[in-house]
From TrEMBL:
<feature type="transmembrane region" description="Helical">
    <location>
        <begin position="174"/>
        <end position="191"/>
    </location>
</feature>
<feature type="transmembrane region" description="Helical">
    <location>
        <begin position="143"/>
        <end position="162"/>
    </location>
</feature>
<feature type="transmembrane region" description="Helical">
    <location>
        <begin position="231"/>
        <end position="252"/>
    </location>
</feature>
<feature type="transmembrane region" description="Helical">
    <location>
        <begin position="69"/>
        <end position="88"/>
    </location>
</feature>
<dbReference type="GO" id="GO:0005886">
    <property type="term" value="C:plasma membrane"/>
</dbReference>
<feature type="domain" description="EamA">
    <location>
        <begin position="143"/>
        <end position="273"/>
    </location>
</feature>
<keyword id="KW-1133">Transmembrane helix</keyword>
<dbReference type="InterPro" id="IPR050638">
    <property type="entry name" value="AA-Vitamin_Transporters"/>
</dbReference>
<feature type="domain" description="EamA">
    <location>
        <begin position="11"/>
        <end position="136"/>
    </location>
</feature>
<keyword id="KW-1003">Cell membrane</keyword>
<dbReference type="Pfam" id="PF00892">
    <property type="entry name" value="EamA"/>
</dbReference>
<keyword id="KW-0472">Membrane</keyword>
<feature type="transmembrane region" description="Helical">
    <location>
        <begin position="94"/>
        <end position="113"/>
    </location>
</feature>
<feature type="transmembrane region" description="Helical">
    <location>
        <begin position="258"/>
        <end position="277"/>
    </location>
</feature>
<feature type="transmembrane region" description="Helical">
    <location>
        <begin position="12"/>
        <end position="30"/>
    </location>
</feature>
<keyword id="KW-0812">Transmembrane</keyword>
<dbReference type="InterPro" id="IPR000620">
    <property type="entry name" value="EamA_dom"/>
</dbReference>
Length: 283
C-alpha cells in the first residue's frame, strides 16, 4: 500500500513537471499570438484545437451538469481571464505570477470549508499576497493585474470543485468536453471583439497554443490533481511562473524589472511556505 502510494506521488510530480514546461511556454506564445488576434479569438482557437485533438484521442466526451460547472470554472473563465491579463500586462511572466496566487486561494477555500490550516500556512498566505501586491505595484495596478488575480481565484475554486466532484472520470473525455464547451461559450465574446490577421505565423501560433497549453497542459494538470490532491499539485505549480520568466526571456527577450523580480520572488516564497513550511518545521 505504501509503495503504491509512493508510485502515485512520483507519477503525479512527473505530470507536474510537464505542466511546468508546457504552461510556462504558453505565456510568451500566447503573448505573440495576441499580435495577430484578440484574446477571445485566441481563446476560441485554443479551445477548439485542443478539444478536437482530445476528442480524436478519446473518441467520446464525458458530459453532465458537474462537468459543465467544472469546465466553466477551470477552462473557460480561467483562459479568458488569462488572455485578458496578457493583453493588458506588458510582461507575460508578471501575469503568470498573479495567476499563480491560485495556491493561496486554494488554502483560503480549504479554511473556509473547515479544513485544518496551521499558522505557518497562514503566514505563507500573507507573505504570498504581500509579494503579489509588490509585483503589481512595481508597474502600478492595472486592468491586466485584476484579470490575472481573478483568474487565480477562479482556478482555485475550480480545482477544489474538480477534486470533490469529477476527478474519478475519464480525464481525456472530460477535457475534450470542457474545451469544446468553452469554445461554444466563447463565440459571443469572439464576435463582440473580433480581430484576426490571417497569416501563417498567427494561425500556427494559435494551433500550437491549443495543442500544448489546452490539450496537453490541462490533461497533465488534472492528472496531477487526481494523483497529488489540489494542495500538493497547487504547491508544485509555484515553479510555473519561474518557468514563464525564463521562457519569456528566451522567446521574447523580455527582461523583468528589479521590483518585479523581488515581488514575484516574495510571492513564490509565500506559496512555498504555505505548502511546505509545516512539513519542514516537523523535520
Amino acid at each position: 500500500m505504501v509503495l503504491a502510494k509512493h508510485v502515485e506521488m512520483n507519477r503525479g510530480y512527473l505530470y507536474m513537471l510537464g505542466v511546468v514546461v508546457v504552461w510556462g511556454l504558453s505565456y510568451p506564445l500566447s503573448k505573440l499570438s495576441l499580435t495577430y488576434m484578440s484574446p477571445f479569438v485566441l481563446a476560441f482557437f485554443r479551445f477548439l484545437v485542443g478539444g478536437l485533438a482530445l476528442l480524436l484521442l478519446s473518441r467520446g466526451m464525458q458530459v453532465g451538469v458537474k462537468e459543465t460547472i467544472n469546465g466553466v470554472l477551470n477552462v473557460f473563465l480561467l483562459v479568458l481571464f488569462l488572455n485578458l491579463s496578457l493583453m493588458f500586462t506588458h510582461n507575460p511572466a508578471l501575469a503568470s505570477v498573479l495567476i499563480y496566487t491560485q495556491p493561496l486561494f486554494v488554502l483560503t477555500i480549504a479554511l473556509f470549508l473547515g479544513e485544518s490550516v496551521g499558522r505557518i500556512r497562514m503566514l505563507g498566505v500573507l507573505i504570498g499576497f504581500a509579494g503579489a501586491l509588490l509585483s503589481v505595484g512595481s508597474t502600478s495596478f492595472s486592468l491586466g493585474s485584476l484579470f490575472a488575480v481573478a483568474g487565480g481565484f477562479t482556478w482555485a475554486v475550480g480545482t477544489t470543485y474538480f477534486r470533490r466532484n469529477v476527478s474519478r472520470g475519464d480525464l481525456v473525455k472530460l477535457n475534450s468536453f470542457m474545451a469544446l464547451l468553452s469554445a461554444l461559450l466563447d463565440v459571443p465574446l469572439m464576435s463582440y471583439d473580433w480581430k484576426l490577421e490571417l497569416s501563417p505565423e498567427g494561425i500556427a501560433l494559435a494551433v500550437v497554443v491549443g495543442l500544448t497549453a489546452q490539450a496537453v497542459g490541462f490533461l497533465l494538470w488534472f492528472s496531477a490533481v487526481r494523483e497529488l490532491g489540489p494542495v500538493n499539485a497547487s504547491a508544485t505549480s509555484i515553479l510555473i511562473p519561474a518557468s514563464a520568466y525564463v521562457l519569456s526571456f528566451l522567446v521574447l527577450g523580455t527582461v523583468p524589472t528589479l521590483l518585479e523580480v523581488i515581488g514575484s520572488s516574495v510571492a513564490l516564497l509565500g506559496v512555498f511556505i504555505s505548502q511546505f513550511g509545516e512539513r519542514l518545521a516537523r523535520a
